[in-house]
């Protein structure tokens, strides 16, 4: 009996020191936000063994530099073009087609410096606020493609709309069109095994961004490719929040109508999305000889919009999209309207919103009324209280599920893309947004925001104060996890 007790005590002692060693290694190797570091430290100490496994799946980035060391290789042509145009703007010698753009040089120059997001003018933007609109337009673009189609998605389903798109792509391959399809290993883990069979037999190319270790099982939670990009013949491109699946057509019983925002761009900004696709494709296939069409001829002006394609991710030195959001909030003169399915701001965004509200600016944030990720949802609600006191207005969308990721600043600047207003989008996911400088685009987005408000309930300070103790408990617990959600 004594030997059993002694053995148990030895095991406890050794587990304690082993967990202490793991925790110290995290503090030493991880140069993270102190809050996040302390949280992981406590998880590992108080959940021996399991805590460290949890960290490996959700929090580790010790191999981050090694993983992405080669990912940001630059194409000389576009790099020179970016730097040259950026220098022109900084030297105040660049003549904008629309003089009002000059008021936002600081945002433009920041994106040039941090994301090499070259600025192009004369673009045309079309909007899609429902899945039916978006998929009808996408299928039409597939049918009209003559030379190549490049598609990149986070989530792909082998359901009705997924099969319809893949059958259409297979037809185009048989017609001699070059088709490349890139999807994320986590988002596509439930795809049927034969989903790409006919497509690949016909000559279509498929690649997976961080493929799962085993079929249907992905052990890598972080570093997801959350981008949604489609390019057709270098002439038009899509970007926004819709993935591929029946739920995005509003066919999910759980969520009902799916409210999202997607855009189609025609003009020189297509080159930014095509270049983004090329770099992601090259990384995924891990082949130095990987080929994509990246050099596009300069197009005639399709419209009036100025656009920058801004991307960020764990391979980026700067959190370019988050910094763009921050710049829009702090530079706004009158208003900032935000739609986001997940609201977990970091300290900089949180303080920027609070200061803007206290300054009397019209700051409105629209979030879903129902969660698709409960911990994320409850954590988001925990941030609202002090912002309400500062004058920020919050609304919950009641007509289905709100998945739109949009920022509207004053009457001119708009951001539409894949990045949520949460820490995961800021640091752990690969994202891409179009920052658009155009009065008409901004006006259209404000009109849609006002239309969505008709289906919303406002979270007033009184409503927030009267929420139940159960909800407060859920919020408090989820808030503790927010740095790692």
Structural features:
485 residues; alpha/beta; Endonuclease, Chain A; two-stranded parallel sheet
Class of the largest domain, according to the CATH hierarchy? Alpha Beta
Order of strands across the biggest sheet?
4-3-2-5-6-8-1-9-18-16-15-10-12-13-19
Number of helices: 18
Percentage of residues assigned to helices: 40-55%
In whole angstroms, how far apart are the ends?
Answer: 45 Å
Kindly describe this structure.
With 485 residues, the chain is of the alpha/beta class. It folds into 3 domains: 2-51; 124-300, Endonuclease, Chain A, CATH 3.30.870; 320-484, Endonuclease Chain A (Endonuclease, Chain A). It is built from 18 helices and 19 strands. It has helices at residues 2-29, 34-46, 50-58, 64-68, 76-90, 105-115, 131-144, 160-174, 197-201, 270-285, 320-331, 347-358, 374-382, 384-389, 423-428, 439-453, 461-465, 469-481, and strands at 119-128, 148-153, 178-184, 205-209, 229-232, 236-240, 258-259, 262-266, 305-312, 335-339, 343-344, 362-368, 393-397, 401-402, 406-409, 413-417, 421-422, 431-437, 456-458. The strands form 3 sheets. The chain has a 15-stranded mixed sheet with strand order 4-3-2-5-6-8-1-9-18-16-15-10-12-13-19, sandwiched between helices. It has a two-stranded parallel sheet with strand order 7-14. Helix 6 packs antiparallel against helix 11 (320-331) and helix 7 (131-144) packs parallel to helix 8 (160-174). It is globular. It starts with a helix and ends with a helix.
């Amino acid at each position: 009996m004594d030997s059993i007790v002694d053995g148990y005590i030895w095991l406890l002692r050794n587990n304690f020191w082993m967990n202490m060693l793991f925790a110290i290694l995290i503090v030493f190797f991880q140069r993270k936000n102190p809050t996040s570091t302390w949280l992981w430290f406590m998880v590992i100490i108080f959940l021996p063994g399991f805590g460290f496994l949890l960290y490996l799946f959700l929090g580790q980035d010790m191999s981050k530099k090694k993983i992405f060391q080669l990912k940001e290789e630059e194409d000389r042509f576009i790099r020179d073009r970016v730097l040259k145009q950026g220098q022109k703007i900084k030297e105040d010698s660049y003549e904008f087609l629309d003089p009002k753009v000059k008021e936002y040089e600081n945002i433009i120059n920041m994106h040039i410096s941090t994301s090499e997001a070259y600025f192009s003018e004369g673009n045309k933007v079309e909007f899609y606020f429902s899945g039916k609109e978006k998929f009808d337009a996408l299928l039409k673009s597939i049918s009209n493609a003559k030379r190549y189609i490049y598609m990149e998605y986070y989530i792909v389903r082998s359901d009705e709309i997924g099969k319809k798109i893949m059958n259409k792509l297979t037809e185009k391959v048989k017609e001699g069109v070059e088709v490349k399809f890139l999807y994320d290993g986590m988002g596509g883990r439930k795809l049927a095994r034969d989903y790409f069979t006919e497509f690949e037999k016909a000559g279509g190319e498929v690649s997976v961004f961080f493929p799962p270790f085993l079929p249907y099982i992905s052990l890598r939670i972080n570093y997801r490719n959350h981008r949604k990009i489609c390019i057709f013949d270098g002439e038009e491109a899509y970007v926004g929040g819709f993935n591929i699946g029946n739920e995005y057509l509003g066919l999910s019983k759980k969520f009902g109508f799916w409210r999202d925002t997607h855009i189609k761009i025609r003009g020189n900004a297509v080159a930014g999305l095509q270049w983004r696709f090329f770099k992601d494709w090259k990384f995924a296939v891990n082949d130095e000889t990987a080929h994509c069409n990246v050099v596009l001829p300069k197009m005639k002006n399709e419209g009036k919009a100025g656009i920058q394609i801004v991307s960020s991710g764990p391979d980026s030195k700067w959190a370019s999209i988050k910094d763009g959001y921050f710049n829009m909030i702090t530079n706004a003169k009158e208003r900032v309207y935000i739609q986001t399915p997940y609201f977990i701001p970091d300290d900089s965004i949180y303080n920027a919103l609070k200061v803007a509200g206290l300054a009397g600016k019209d700051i409105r944030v629209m979030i879903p009324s129902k969660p698709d990720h409960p911990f994320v949802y409850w954590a988001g609600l925990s941030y609202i209280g002090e912002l309400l006191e500062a004058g920020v207005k919050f609304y919950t969308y009641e007509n289905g599920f709100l998945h739109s990721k949009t920022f509207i600043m004053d009457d001119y600047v708009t951001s539409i893309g894949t990045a949520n207003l949460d820490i995961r989008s800021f640091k752990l996911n690969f994202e891409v947004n179009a920052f658009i400088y155009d009065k008409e685009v901004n006006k259209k987005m404000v009109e849609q925001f006002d239309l969505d408000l008709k289906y919303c309930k406002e979270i007033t300070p009184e409503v927030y104060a009267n929420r139940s103790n159960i909800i407060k408990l859920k919020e408090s617990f989820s808030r503790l996890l927010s740095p790692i959600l």
